[in-house]
Amino acid sequence: MKVVVAPGDGIGPEVIAPAVDVLKIFHPEWEYSQVYLGYECWKRTGDPLSQTTRSALKEADLILFGAITTPPDPAYKSVILTIRKELDLYANLRPVFGSGFDILIVRENTEGLYSGIEWEEKDRACTIRLVTEEGSRRIARFASSCARRRRRHLTIGNKANILKSDVFFVRICQEEAEKIDVSVDKKYIDALVLDVLQHPERYDVIVTTNIFGDILSDAAAYLEGGLGMLPSANIGKDHALFEPVHGSAPDIAGKGIANPIAAIRCISLLLKYAQERENAKIVEAAIQKVLADGIKTPDLGGKAGTKEVGEAVIKEI
Amino acid sequence: MKVVVAPGDGIGPEVIAPAVDVLKIFHPEWEYSQVYLGYECWKRTGDPLSQTTRSALKEADLILFGAITTPPDPAYKSVILTIRKELDLYANLRPVFGSGFDILIVRENTEGLYSGIEWEEKDRACTIRLVTEEGSRRIARFASSCARRRRRHLTIGNKANILKSDVFFVRICQEEAEKIDVSVDKKYIDALVLDVLQHPERYDVIVTTNIFGDILSDAAAYLEGGLGMLPSANIGKDHALFEPVHGSAPDIAGKGIANPIAAIRCISLLLKYAQERENAKIVEAAIQKVLADGIKTPDLGGKAGTKEVGEAVIKEI
Ligand SMILES: CC(C)[C@H](C(=O)O)[C@@H](O)C(=O)O
Ligand SMILES: CC(C)[C@H](C(=O)O)[C@@H](O)C(=O)O
């Protein structure tokens, strides 16, 4: 396996380092390399994502992504969006779990309101929400097969009472789920966001379109106390990119106190993706143990540094 | 003032009755009439919203709307959506308040993804997200002037990092807020939904486009324990419609146990809209007192019926 590490900006490099160490325990034999991208890279070189970096990413099987700073400059195009498009990472996964609930949010990651088809006329601006059959089928298949390996239930987050494009999306999701015998229910996205907050135990896998997934997953992060501890995966046919949900946190960068748990959880997700469920569980169990032992960074009320938490997890493993 | 009452389906008539009684305490002199609409009406007459009803609504200054059942029949067009369009009720207001926070969500109510401009081709379905200058300016002006009467702060919920139509929307909102000296900040809708849950005290007025407002307001309802107690207003240049956020609850309809608080809170909103801030406060205070006295319907763990709660509020007033 070719693993490309993209540490990025701010605390990215600090949290990615222990994550790579964890992965190397299980797979010292994989081929590791590193690329430079993001805001700092843009300031130094004028390009946040060079051709060399793009080629390296395209050759990777697995990508470990740290965090990037996105400046409020409209000329700056989001690096992560470009990568999703170029590598066709069509499924964005966000597991959210806690005591009594275990939800997997599967977000379509390439179309919907992120179509990029937009224009401005004199007195109006329009964006096309694009839902294609191919795009819907592949995300529906992906989500259904996740559900089959879990509690065999799929919830389709939609707004088909308003959007014909969601009538289309829902129909295709139902078809794909039925094919592999996964039970389905449909819920309007507004009601779904509230119900996930109130009754998270009712959900197994949730599939939804791009921007609804974006909002739903941030809302669901409330159940885990925010974005700080959550990993995510962006998955395509040929590549998979793993990324902590938190940002680059420039205010604490370089201080050695950033929480590496989200980045290390990315390794757990990565191992699951590589069909190594047992190894994935070992990583998650080690994290739980370290947290239970009170070895925590300041954001969790502890006194440990990034390195100390990383080393503690490695020792547990 | 012409008040038209539209009780609708399910528990609609039960909860609207005490609300009308409350309004009549303050304004026995207003002209009241009633219209028949909704799902039951559709089953009996084949039309959920007849021409006669439409005309009556168009002549109303104030509309009190109960609740409607929307069948999963794709041929049935949502009554509330039709009314919003026909009466051009461009601002959807949802106040959310509790201990230490008091937020007013102002949702654009006529365009965005609710444009109705959509089509299906062989292998794809598209919906246009339409953001017009006129539509944005009037909602921005409305939200800014609400903010000016409150804590003079406006948050613009948007996804301008993805949507050019939101770059457009944000710019217009900023212009309108600055004109009347209301301070502004911008927040991406995904991060905003999470931050409202985690730090509701940071927000005063939030303005956003149609579907983002739809989702955000349901998420914010989590802070108040769900949709059951919340009122909403749909406001246009010539008309205003007040509606509890909860649905028609067919399972408890006719039992006399539906909670009338959301409907009575609509009267408080209505009085505020009519510039009767003191009267609005009297209604809200009476509600608080009745709840504190433990006179509650079963959904709040009490034993009182709809009538008893309504009468208790009226006695307090
Ligand atoms: C940074 C932004 C473009 C991105 C998105 O909207 O997808 C982020 O919110 C996410 O969820 O990964
Ligand atoms: C019933 C539905 C069409 C409506 C909407 O989407 O606006 C509802 O969710 C609301 O918030 O009033």
UniProtKB/TrEMBL annotation, chains A, B:
One of its GO terms (molecular function) is magnesium ion binding. The keyword Electron transport does not apply. One of its GO terms (biological process) is tricarboxylic acid cycle. The keyword Oxidoreductase applies. Keywords: Oxidoreductase. Residues 2-313 form the Isopropylmalate dehydrogenase-like domain. It holds the Pfam family Iso_dh. Belongs to the isocitrate and isopropylmalate dehydrogenases family. This is NAD-dependent isocitrate dehydrogenase. It comes from Methanospirillum lacunae.
